[in-house]
Amino acid sequence: MIKTAIHNAENYADLRFSFSWEDERKNLDGLPGRAGLNMVHEAVDRHADGALCDHVALRWIRGDRAARDFTYHDLKVLSSQFANVLTALGISKGDTVFTLLGRVPELYITALGTLRKTAVYCPLFSVFGPEPVFQRLSKGKAKILVTTLEQYEKKIKGIVGMLPDLKHVLITDINLDLDDLVLSLPFLMNKMSGVFQIPPTSLEDPALLHFTSGTTGMPKGALHVHGAVLMHYVTGKYVLDFQPDDIFWCTADPGWVTGTSYGILAPLVNGVTNVVDEEEFDAARWYSILEEQKVTTWYTSPTAIRRLMRLNVKPREQYNLERLRLILSVGEPLHAEAVRWGEQTFGIPILDNWWQTETGGIMIANFPSLEVKPGSMGKPLPGIEAAIAEVTPDGIRMIAEPNVSGNLVLKKGWPSMFRTYLNEEERYQKCFRGEWYVTGDLARRDEEGYFWFVGRADDIIKTSGHMVGPFEVEKSLMSHHSVAEAAVIGKPDPLIGEMVKAFVVLKPGEDASAELRLDIMAHARKTLGPAVAPKEIAFVDSLPKTKSGKTLRRLLKARELGLPEGDLSTLEK
Ligand code: AMP
Fold first, then answer.
1. Domain 461-561 in CATH: superfamily?
2. Residue 354 near ligand 1, beta carbon < 6 Å
3. Whose CA is closest to atom 9 on ligand 1?
């Protein structure tokens, strides 16, 4: 076991014992005049109006490596201007504002400005193709979309007519409006005042919408409330262990939940400097950013770590990484070798932690002050009760014995728990058994209370850390004129965790040729985007089905991997 230095959560056991949400809540401000609690007041205004006014809140590193700083004061002014833009465009409390952007300043300004307005912010993964973008904009009843001209022309122009709720598309990189619908964001921003008083906001007012995939059906919109900011504060303090002069770098894509909770909110709520790199993974660039920006706290993913592990680079010999004191990882299993590699390469273990879109913040973590058991996700955050249980359609039985695999469940009621799946209350209710939220993951807990990831209880795929719902991919494949049926699985991959593999049944008379395979693949890439489309396609004569007609993806996966086929009593012969 490896022990790290002692930090904010000095003694995990004591903290767990003495912790209370009410006490931690006292570290937040609340809106002046008892007007409630708003995320952007906690993340920006209270610092902008205080000692951190000129402190760098966001350091944006452009593709060409030029850096642009935004102080807490700058973020207050810019997000106020954006909130005024929303008012001018007739946006009200609770309306949804989407981004389809990479890591550019406009994304951060939109997110903060939307929260300031008390509208609901929803980011979209910028690598999605037109189909997933349409599904989410439509389901989320997007009123405003902020994007670039290129994205607009490629993915939005063709679907605006099918989005009756969409009032405007705001383009970040044009100076003149295209027409009455498609407006120039810089032009609008320039006209607006930098003063906008946050309206009264209750803890339960909707703030964030994050789409996530289910095994069946189309993506679900997990809705989070302003009160979730307490979780961002607490996890920033105890897991990311923020200290006043920290320089934090979260490499997550801003289109997914980590990009919002930890790529925007947690560092700002804790008043530290948040580094944002416009570019995607590049080992040499990343090591230089760690050095040049004097990053203290680095939050990344197992896929990125595996990429770094493959290269024979000894970063501490080539780069000055003296200030780097914490490396954390989330999104997929972080194997013991990666934790040890961190120890050998950086002199500190990589701290794995676990959470998901629905939980809104970190739930289980390796705390800097706790013994690290390489390969384990760590222990529950103080204030969070996690357990292993056997779950049936209408019941739950807690498993007390250690080292028994079961469903990972969480006791309801933490501040950032999702409040519903947008317009799908029934789907939401199905996630709970009494007081317990069923996460969809399988795990075990050891004698010392450490949790170990076992797998997913469903068919969800995690590829390069991105969650992919098989149904959405299958639907796209079946929209190809030669495809009769399709089923999709996650096939283990040493680099990206899992790759999307499809099994396709062709329509009668179609020739299972290499050209057709490429054509189907190209169709999927075009509609879904390259990060989601299958990397492998196998033609099969039929798909294994249950007697009620459901495709048995788990059987396809077992056969693909040469694993035992399990209980086949429901298989249609
Ligand atoms: P998302 O909702 O996209 O953030 O994905 C959440 C899912 O990613 C979880 O339910 C897990 O299946 C997986 N996941 C997240 N963190 C970890 C981790 N530390 N170890 C293993 N799986 C993880």
1. ANL, C-terminal domain (3.30.300.30)
2. yes
3. 356
